Amino acid sequence: MSRIHKSLLLAAGMVIAGAGQFAARAADPSSARAAGQAADKQADYNARIAPLLKRFCFECHGPKKQEAEIGFQELADASRFPDQRATWERVLEMVEFAAMPPEDEPQPTEAERETLVAWIRSQLTTGGAAIAGDPGRVTIRRLNRAEYNNTVRDLLGVEIKPADDFPSDDVGYGFDNIGEVLSLPPLLMEKYLNAAEQIAEAAIVIEDPSKAPGQRRDRRRLDSKGSAKLERSGVFTLNSEGEVSHRFEFQRAGDYILRLEAGAQQAGDEPARMELRLDDKPVTVFDVRSKRAALRPFDFRLHVEQGEHKVSAAFINDFYDPQAKDENARDRNLYVGAIELIGPVDIRPEDLPESHRRLITIRPDGGRAPLDAARQVLRPFISRAFRRLVKADEVERFANLVQMVVDQQQPYERGIQVAVAAVLVSPHFLFRVERDAQPDNPQARRKLNDFELASRLSYFLWSSMPDEELFALARQRKLRDDVVLRRQVARMLQDRKAAALVENFAGQWLNLRMLDEIAPDPDTFPDFDHRLREDMRRETLLFFDAIVREDRSILELLDGRFSYINSRLADHYGVVGIETDEFRRVDWKPADPRAGVLTQASILTLTSNPKRTSPVKRGKWIMENILGTPPPEPPPDVPVLEETQKAAPNMSLREQLELHRKDAGCASCHRQMDALGFGFENFDPVGRWRDRDGRLPIDASGVLPTGEKFNGP
Q1: In a designed cystine with 677, which of 7, 481, 558, 619 is the match (CB 3.0 to 4.6 A)?
Q2: pTM as predicted
C-alpha cells in the first residue's frame, strides 16, 4: 500500500478512534464533568498551550492581526471552550496537517505540535462528553422527493413517481434529508395536493362506468393527418381521407369506453362513415348521420392493455359530385369535435391492480354500512401511512369523508379515493413526526419508541417506510432489543430496497450526482459519452454496495483491491477479457495502480477540468469528502490558476501551482490540497492511466503536510 493511501487510512482511523472515545466518555458523564474542572483546565492552558500559541501563532492571529477572523487572545479563557468549539476544530485541522504555521514561518517541533494537537483533541472530547445525550431541538423532517416516491410505492404498491415533478429539495451539509433545510413552500403544497389525487386514482379503481375517470382531448389537443383541418369553431373538418388522433395513457389493463363526438355533411347514397382505430388498427366503423351543427357522441367499448396507445378517428368514404342538383349534397365531409377515453369500466377481478386489492378488503353489503366498511379498511392503511398506531378519532375523521362521498350518490370506491388522498396530505404522512411529551421543556429527554425507531431504520437504509416485519416488531415492542435490532439491520441490508442507501447516501457523499454536470472536452476525449459516464457512476455505486452488504472494513473504500466493470470500462482502463455490457467483479492485480474509490474513473473525472487534471480539485475533494476537513474559501483577491498558466505556458502543471502558491493567501491551503491531488496525476481527466502529460513526464511525487513522502497513488 502506498504512503498516501496509508496516510488517508490513518486519518480516517483517527476520526473513528475519536468517535469511540466520545462514546466511552459519554457513558460516564460524571467522570467527564470531574475531568473538566475549570481551574485545572485554565492552569493547564496557561502553562502548556498559551506559550506555544504566542510563539508560533500570535503574529497573524494575535491582538494586532486576526487573519481568517481568528484571534487566540479571544480564545484564552478555557471555560469558554464549548462555545468556541468550531474555531478550535478548525485550528486542530490546520495544526494536525501542518498547514499552519506557514512554511516560511518558524515551525514547532514534532513534540510541540503533538502537544497542541493532543490538548485540543482532549478538550473537544471532554466538551463533547459534557453535552452527550442532549440532541438539542431537532427539526421535524419532511420526506424528501426520493423518500416520498419510495413511501408511496411501498404503501400502495403503485409504480408512479409524482415527486419527480416536485421542486428540488434544498441541500444541507451535502445531503437532501436534513430537516433544517426541508421547508414547505406554497408551490410544494400545491404539488402535494395534486399528487395525492393522482396517487389515489392510480391505486383505486372506480367500477361504476358513470363515475369512471375520463380523459377528454379536443380542439388543438388533437393531432391531425391528411385532409383534417381545424376550423375556428374548434371542430376538425375531414373532407377526404383524413384522420385525427391522440395518444392516451391507459393506467391499467381493462375495459374502456372510447367516445368520439362527430357530425357530417351528407352526400351520395350512403352516410358518412367514421372508422375508430387503436394503434392504427381498425376497431369498428360508425355511420355518422348527425349533422355538423349537432355533433353527437359515438361510444365503443373494448379491452385495452396497460400503457400508451394511439386512438384515431378516420374518414373512410369520401364522396364529391359537383354535378349534383342539390348544392348541399355535392360533398360528403366528416366533422370531429373531441375524442374521450372513459374507464376502466366493469373491471374484472383479475384486472384490479394490486393496490386496489391490498386496500379495499371490505365493501359495504346488506349487513355492513359504508361507514363501518371504511373504518375497517382505513385503520390499517392510516397506521401504515402515519408509521405508528392510530387512535379511533383519527380513523373516524377519514372514514367520515367516505360517508360524505357515498351520501352524494357516488361509489364507495370514490369515497376511499378521497380518504386516501386526504391521508397523503396529512402532516403525519408528509413528515416523520417524533412528538415530544414536553415540547416546551428543553431539558426533557426521552427514548425513541419502537415505531419511531422503525422509521429511523427504514428511512436510513431504504429511504422508505418500514415494512410489515418492522411494524410487527414495533407493535410487540421488541425492536429495542439489541439482538433483534442487529438481526433486522442485517436483513434490511440484504433487501433490494437497500439500493436506496447506495444511491442516495453514496451518491451525495461522493458527489456522484454532480457527475452529470461534468463535460470533458469532446475534442480531447472523443470516446467520452453518456454511456461511459453512467458506467463510471455504476462502478462506484456497485463498489460501495459491496462494502456495505458484505460488511467489509470501511477502510476498503480507500484501499479495496477490487471493483466492478463492464466492457466499456474495461477498454477505458486497459483491462482485457471482459466483453459484455454486464458488470462483473474484478480483483486488481498487485501491479494494477487502482484501489478504492479514489482511483475510480467517476471520482477522477468529477475532480478534473474539461481539458486537464486538477490536483487542486482532487486534493480538495479528498479533504472534504474523505478527511472531513474542508479548506476555507479562497480570499477574493487571489488570482485564478488560469492567469498563472497564461503567464508561464511552458511550465508543467506542478511548476505553475508552485508559482501560484507563492501568493501568501494561497499557500496554507494549497500546501495540503496540492500534495494530495498530485498523488493521482498519473490518471488523466477521465480516469485513464498515463505516464506523460503531453510532452512532459508525469511527476506524481510529493510530501504530505505530515512530512511523509510518496510517489503515485
Answers
A1: 619
A2: 0.70
